[in-house]
UniProtKB/TrEMBL annotation:
4-aspartylphosphate sites (modified residues): D504, D652
Keywords, alphabetical: Membrane, Phosphoprotein, Transmembrane, Transmembrane helix, Two-component regulatory system
Entry's transmembrane regions: 39-57, 66-84, 96-124, 144-162
InterPro entries assigned to the protein according to its UniProt record, in alphabetical order: CheY-like_superfamily (IPR011006), HATPase_C_sf (IPR036890), HATPase_dom (IPR003594), His_kinase_dom (IPR005467), HisK_dim/P_dom (IPR003661), HisK_dim/P_sf (IPR036097), HPT_dom_sf (IPR036641), Sig_transdc_His_kin-like_C (IPR004358)
Domain called Histidine kinase: residue spans: 210-431
Gene3D superfamilies: 1.10.287.130, 3.40.50.2300, Histidine kinase-like ATPase, C-terminal domain, HPT domain
Modified residues (Phosphohistidine): H799
Pfam families, per database record: HATPase_c (PF02518), HisKA (PF00512), Hpt (PF01627), Response_reg (PF00072)
Enzyme class: transferase
Protein name as annotated: histidine kinase
């Protein structure tokens, strides 16, 4: 029921009593003029009764409305008749107009028209039928017409008003209906929006989790193989380079963690670490990054660290460096000329702490007061034009402020438009005792050094001269390499050769590398001085050449006095450090589980071949026997078949067929967490994924890239001693010298691939042969998947091919596979055929090389004769490993292959079975090997 109907019903409920009220009024009027009261009352009541009866059955329907109009007009007509000859008779005509106006309450123009017609008929009837009842002098048609005109005018007005009322109610009804519909759907829409928001949040979480997995997988290989190679025999330079690679990879991993944990920053749940760090060493990489950008723009970058600032501090160096790097890069970005200065000081802080005061000053565009007010808001820059001109999201300063406040400090900015800016902040840290280090070079020893500075930039020469002047150390200056060589020759002729030469790299005429090479090779300069290269350019661009030029150290401008002093200390307290420091040696020492736990058997569930290789090496070095499962389904089968033989399971999460979560849930139906520890060893490091692993029943979580120390600590925590733990762990089978791998094998870059595999030639040969077997039909599979729009399958094949090709250094194949993976990811079919042709062309020489490597002709030179008795121990060991389904069987098979001659046709099926991890078939083939006539004949 709408509002108009409700109004009509309310009006009808008022009109009915009004009609009934006319009956006693009629009786009184009749008595007043001397007429019978009963007939008048009955006539009035009869009209009211008719309306009431219609109301009872039809309520406010049109019939009731029309009948009420006639009855209401009939009441004044009855009064006119009763008062015939009375002075008030003519006044009763006014009642007609009142009754007509009253009917507007029905909001129906037709009711008004019916009432107007009833009035007209009433007057005509009285005028022509009983004129004496109204007009004493007889009919008066003119007066009837006058009344009719008045009624017609009133009717027109009432009809217009009734229509307007109905239209208004219609609009109100439409709006009300719309509001009702909106209200009815509001909850649904809110629920829908909530679901959308939850889905978006889930999508973001899954994206971060997947990105974490994709990034951490190659990071695991980098850190894992760096760790493994650092335990091998290396030259000091190789050890230093690898140690730096591992350190840089660890820093990159920390930054990746920052990005992936951004949701923690949004939620205010980010936790800070408290670990000792060397401030100047932490700043080295940061200054190097900022210096390169400053050099590109042609602006200066200066660093001033108060000598009173302690070397060793306790706090979160990563977060502190993140803030400083953000401020430095912003300063360089918004400065077109002049310089940027980083100043660091300290003062006592609360609770025996230390307040580190950091300031970054630039001569850039500056900021207005309004811009400063909104500068630290998320996704905000000074104005909209800066985003277009300089780029960036405006998020860095907001994060920096939050990090500074979490470290107990406050960040502020002082700036004026066109006059540069000064960002300064304080953080609460603690000074810690210095780590063990060589005795510092006494000042008097430093002052005895003869030092030459060669730099074409006058400002740089002045800065270096001022640094040494602060220690009362005189230095000689040269403006070019030629001038520096002349000074070296002169001092050598005088019998006072230089001890240290600081060379700029980029100089006109002769650069620093060439000058260093001449210093080392030319005998006129006497005993070769130590050469330190100082440059504003990045390390990577110059390090390769610097090694061959005999450069002892490298510093990135702007240099800090503390950095120079550290380098001089390392050069002159012990002129050549051939071995790494004891701390580094201890850090890279082989880590093993507790003695009582060694020999335990663990199951590794991992689908990625490279990750399997790294994990097997780490676990083997830790003193454990390792068996592998390439997915969760195989892991479940092995656990159930082993009946408690495994001491622990190391479970990846993202695997084909059955993932780690599903496999863990299934294992927990048979073994509880106390009986069989399950440790998630996965690149899924996002907090939500970690909790999902624990909720599924896993005991612990180790993020890839795997830190060997954390892995061993987790194993020590969860493993239990067992009888099997007393069995010694078999060492890895050393690769044989004659491995059948040529020196070159285009298009494989064997040198680079061997670096990835720590020089294991036999393993590389096997991987190349496996590549030829596994990916011979890869292009056909990809073409079929793209043709059927099976985008996920195409992406999986291309991704796998890309990873393996990258590991084997087949760069053309890896690049073509990457392009196809991108096309599958974007569900883009345009241009795919051209990419497939490109991949096919890149694959042909690679597959041909792999087939050639596997052929008997290629292996003939490597074949050695051996008698069966000498092979029995290898076969027995291999059989035991196959029975235990151990990945180490592949290494023992390599030794067996070398003894047989890799071209033996008898070994082909066995190699194929082991390659696809069909251990039962491999055992059968191995058992038949000894009694094979072909083998006996070949060995004889």
């Amino acid at each position: 029921m709408d509002e108009l109907d409700r109004l009509r019903r309310r009006f009808g409920a008022v009109l009915l009593p009004l009609l009934w009220l006319h009956a006693p009024v009629m009786a009184l009027a009749a008595l007043a003029v001397g007429r019978p009261a009963l007939p008048a009352a009955l006539a009035s009541a009869a009209m009211a009764a008719l309306v009431h009866l219609s109301w009872a059955y039809q309520r406010s329907e049109p019939a009731t409305r029309y009948l009420s109009a006639i009855a209401l007009i009939g009441q004044p007509a009855l009064l006119v008749y009763l008062l015939a000859g009375h002075p008030w008779q003519m006044d009763m005509h006014m009642y007609f107009f009142a009754a007509l106006a009253l009917l507007i309450g029905w909001c129906d123009w037709r009711v008004v028209v019916v009432a107007a017609v009833a009035v007209a008929l009433h007057h005509l009837m009285l005028n022509f039928v009983v004129p004496a009842a109204v007009f004493p002098s007889g009919a008066d048609l003119n007066r009837v017409w006058l009344h009719a005109a008045i009624v017609a005018f009133q009717t027109a007005v009432l009809v217009w008003l009734a229509n307007r009322l109905v239209q208004s109610f219609a609009r109100i009804g439409a709006m009300s209906a719309e509001i009702m519909r909106t209200n009815e759907t509001l909850e649904l829409r809110v629920a829908a929006r909530t679901r959308e928001a939850e889905a978006a949040n889930m999508a973001k979480s899954m994206f971060l989790a997947n990105m974490s997995h994709e990034i951490r997988t190659p990071m695991n290989a980098i850190l894992g193989f760096s760790h493994l190679v650092l335990r091998t025999e290396l030259t000091p330079k190789q050890h230093d380079f690898l140690l730096k690679i591992k350190t840089a990879s660890g820093t990159l991993l920390g930054l990746i963690n920052d990005i992936l944990d951004f949701s923690k920053i949004e939620a205010g749940k980010l936790s800070l670490e408290a670990a000792p760090f060397n401030l100047r060493q932490s700043l080295d990489g940061i200054i190097g990054i900022a210096a390169e950008r400053a050099e590109e723009k042609g602006i200066g970058l200066r660093v001033r660290i108060d000598p009173a600032v302690p070397q060793q501090l306790l706090g979160d160096s990563l977060r502190l460096g993140q803030v400083i790097l953000n401020l430095l890069t912003n300063a360089v970005k918004f400065t077109d000329r002049g310089e940027v200065t980083l100043s660091i000081g300290s003062r006592p802080g609360p609770e025996d702490g230390l307040l580190l005061e950091v300031a970054v000053t630039d001569t850039g565009i500056g900021l207005t007061e309004e811009e400063r007010a909104r500068l630290f808001r998320p996704f905000t820059q000074a104005d909209s034009s800066t985003t277009r001109r300089f780029g960036g999201t405006g998020l860095g300063l907001a994060i920096s402020r939050q990090l500074v406040e979490m470290m107990g400090g406050r960040i502020e900015v002082d700036s004026r438009p066109g006059q540069g800016s000064r960002f300064h902040f304080t953080v609460q840290l603690h000074a810690v005792a210095e780590l063990a280090a060589p005795e510092p070079l006494p000042l008097e020893e430093l002052q005895r050094l003869r030092i030459l500075v060669v730099d074409d930039n006058p400002a740089s020469r002045e800065v270096l001269q001022a640094i040494f002047a602060g220690w009362s150390v005189p230095v000689d200056l040269a403006a070019s390499a030629a001038e520096g060589l002349s000074a070296l020759e002169t001092r050598a002729a005088q019998g006072e050769p230089y001890d240290l030469v600081l060379l700029d790299w980029k100089m006109p005429g002769m650069d620093g590398i060439e000058a260093a090479r001449r210093i080392r090779e030319d005998g006129r300069f006497g005993a070769s001085p130590a050469v330190m290269l100082v440059s504003a350019h990045g390390r990577q661009e110059v390090l390769a050449e610097a090694q061959t030029a005999g450069i002892a150290a490298f510093l990135v401008k702007p240099v800090d006095p503390g950095m120079i002093q550290d380098v001089i200390q390392s050069l002159f307290s012990s002129r050549v450090r051939a071995q790494p420091s004891p701390v580094a040696a201890r850090t890279e020492a082989s880590r093993k589980v507790a003695a009582a736990l060694r020999g335990n058997r663990v199951l590794l569930a991992e689908d990625n071949e490279i990750n399997r290789e790294v994990a097997v090496e780490l676990l083997g070095d830790a003193g454990l026997h390792v068996e592998i499962a390439e997915n969760g389904r195989v892991a479940l089968e092995k656990v159930l078949a082993a009946e408690g033989r495994f001491a622990a399971v190391l479970m990846d999460v993202q695997m084909p067929e059955m993932d780690g979560i599903e496999a863990t849930l299934a294992i927990r139906h048979r073994f509880n967490a106390e009986q069989l520890p399950i440790i998630a060893m996965t690149a899924h490091a996002y907090a939500q994924e970690k909790q999902r692993c624990l909720d599924a029943g896993m005991n612990d979580h180790i993020a890839k890239p795997v830190d060997p120390a954390l892995l061993v600590a987790a194993l020590d925590r969860w493993l239990k001693p067992s009888a099997a733990a007393q069995a010694p762990v078999m060492p890895a089978v050393a690769p044989v010298a004659q491995d059948g791998l040529p020196d070159t094998l285009p298009p494989f870059d064997l040198a680079a691939a061997l670096n990835r595999l720590n020089g294991k030639r036999a393993l590389l040969r096997k991987l190349i042969v496996d590549f030829g077997m596994r990916f011979a039909g890869a292009v056909t599979e990809l073409r079929r998947a793209f043709g059927r729009d099976e985008w996920q399958e195409a992406r999986r094949i291309a991704h796998t091919l890309r990873g393996v090709a990258g590991s084997l250094e087949i760069r053309d194949v890896a690049e073509a596979a990457r392009l196809l993976e991108d096309a599958a990811q974007a569900r883009r079919s345009e241009g795919v055929e051209a990419l497939l042709v490109r991949l096919e062309q890149a694959m042909e020489p690679a597959l041909a090389a792999a087939r050639g490597l596997a052929s008997p002709a290629a292996q003939a030179a490597a074949a050695e004769s051996a008698d069966m008795a000498a092979l029995q121990p290898i076969i027995a060991e291999l059989r035991g490993l196959l029975q235990r389904r151990s990945l180490r069987a592949r290494k023992v098979l390599e030794a067996l292959e070398a003894a047989f001659g890799a071209g033996s046709s008898e070994l082909g099926p066995l190699k194929e079975a082991v390659a696809v991890l069909d251990f039962n078939r491999a055992i059968g083939l191995l058992d038949g090997l000894a009694c094979s006539p072909a083998v006996t004949e070949e060995l004889s």
